[in-house]
Amino acid sequence: MATITTREYNPFTGAFIGNINWVSFGNISVGSTSQIKVIDFVFTGVTSVSNIKIGLMNSAGVTVNESPTGILSDGTASNGRFGIEHSSSFEAKTGLVRHFAGTNTSNLSTDPYNVTIETRDSVTSEYVYLDVEPGSSNTGRASGNWKVFFDFT
Amino acid sequence: MAFVPPSYSSSLTDMRAVSSPKTGRNGLLSCLGFFDFVPPSSESTEGHLSKTKSNVGRIISISPSELISFETGAVSMTIRLPYAIEDGVYGGLPESARYAQHMVLWATHHGEHYISSPGILAALTPSGVLFEVWTNLGRHQLFSTNVNVAANTFFEIKFAWNKDGFDEGWPSTMAIFVDGILVGHRRGDIADTSIDGIFSVLDSPSGKFGAVAEIKRLELYPSFSEELPAYVQSSSSSVSSQSIADTSSSSMSYDDDFPRAGKATIGFDFYVGAGSNTVVITDISYHVVSQKTIDLNAVGPIGAALNETGGPLTPYMFPEPPEDIPPGITQTRERS
């Protein structure tokens, strides 16, 4: 049976922190961007994984992207409030310049606003960097979720 | 199919977290017995709760209708078991001749040994992972033998139902997911009746079953609708037809040469405050302190020391030491 494990890393050193199924961005000042979270996915019970995509399913009330610009082949935009980048080796990033272009409203892996993530090996995804910049009207505690889509053999 | 936020979602980092969910209502959830606390480790950055044979911990709600209904919903729990689940059969089932040999994962309207109608039961049994929904439209049991989980490994298991079917193209009304992978589904008529009795997690309310487990997350959803996963659509039609029919069990098979698809959900949260909550601690500087000798004849802040008549200082009088003498400085208490 295929299983997916999400692993979190120290954003400054790349040291493994632990397995998670929830990302806590912590406290964010109004008008600020959260700390960067670094994760990857490892798949077990499979021979190989391909076509990994991440969709932002629930944005916790934050406007994801009013007018996405500079969309690249991986689906990321140069603007937006939910940062996402990916790399095959760990990089200590001070800020994210690529973002989700929109919300996945179809719950499908083919949704145009999904972001494509490559693999580091047959059963491990690239490192994924995430952050969020809530709007000035977003105050208090909020939660949302991403969904990871993948094919496996 | 817009995402439906959970009606209850909590990372069970301690017993207080049971009644203080991160998202949703608390649904009057509370603990019966108690749980041991498992501190953070390399596998989990947060602590979690452990049910043992001695603490007989279980989570209950006396008002589950605030959180779920028979019409549609889902319950997801992230747990770790001391024994493996192989082909749906858990290796740590209680060997009790007196009580049912199953381990209750969660249930509604559970009596001492079994559920009553209307009730829902999710359990590990000798026949596989059981999901049972019992209303006045029938008692439907879904067994999955397609679950394999190593011992001492956290996994998420979700039980979902929708009396109208999960999707136009997926008429099943009951489904089990493990780590986001569909491991069993079937159709069985469910009446839209009210949730009766107590909702309990990790045991029946009576705590009779006693199997041990660790739990670090619990989520309840007020509704669930989803399209049939692509890999099931692509699997053999005989399996699909068997699953959709009102059979007593369901399992899936795959064509190993065909790429399958899966998905998993990762939640996030944050708190936006009006001002900065950052505390800045500047670097601490250190200085080497050297001993100083103070001249008592020197003029201090209130003048030189004098006796009562304004004459020279007697051996019994000492001048006021200069201000800002750093602590630890030895004062010379003799006139030079």
Instruction: Give Rg of chain B in angstroms.
Output: 34 Å
Largest sheet of chain A: 5 strands, antiparallel
Strand order across the largest sheet of chain A: 2-1-4-12-7
Classify the beta-strand content of chain A into a percent band: over 45%
Beta content of chain B comes to: 25-35%
Low-confidence stretches of chain A: none
So how many helices of chain B? 2
Report the mean per-residue pLDDT of chain B as an integer.
77
Structural class of chain A: mainly beta
Mean pLDDT of chain A: 90
Question: What is the chains' assembly state?
Answer: heterodimer
Q: Tell me the radius of gyration of chain A.
A: 15 Å
Largest sheet descriptor of chain B: 9 strands, antiparallel
Q: What is the number of beta strands of chain A? A: 13
Residue windows where pLDDT falls under 50 for at least 5 positions of chain B? 234-258
Q: How many beta-strand elements of chain B?
A: 19
Shape of chain B: elongated
**Class by helix and strand content of chain B?**
mainly beta
Roughly what percent helix of chain A?
under 10%
How far apart are the first and last residues' alpha carbons of chain B, in Å?
A: 93 Å
Distance between the termini of chain A: 11 Å
What does this structure look like?
- The complex is a heterodimer of chains A (153) and B (336).
- Chain A is mainly beta and 153 residues long.
- In chain A, 0% of the residues lie in helices and 49% in strands.
- Chain A has strands at 3-9, 16-20, 22-29, 37-44, 49-58, 76-77, 82-87, 99-100, 115-117, 119-121, 124-125, 127-132, 140-152.
- Chain A has a 5-stranded antiparallel beta sheet with strand order 2-1-4-12-7, with no helix packed on it. Chain A has a 3-stranded antiparallel beta sheet with strand order 9-5-13, with no helix packed on it. In chain A, strands 6-8 form a two-stranded antiparallel ribbon.
- Chain B is mainly β and 336 residues long.
- Helices cover 4% and strands 34% of the residues of chain B.
- Chain B has 2 helices and 19 strands.
- Chain B has helices at residues 230-233, 237-244, and strands at residues 8-11, 23-24, 29-32, 36-38, 48-51, 58-61, 72-80, 85-86, 89-90, 103-110, 115-125, 128-135, 138-144, 155-162, 174-178, 181-186, 199-201, 213-221, 260-273.
- In chain B, the strands form 3 sheets. In chain B, strands 1, 2, 4, 5, 7, 14, 15, 16 and 18 form a 9-stranded antiparallel beta sheet that branches. Chain B has a 7-stranded antiparallel beta sheet with strand order 3-6-17-10-11-12-13, with no helix packed on it.
- The longest helix of chain B is centred in the C-terminal third of the chain and has 8 residues, at 237-244.
- Chain B is elongated and about 110 Å long.
- Mean pLDDT of chain B is 77; it is low at 234-258.
- Strand 13 (140-152) of chain A pairs antiparallel with strand 19 of chain B.
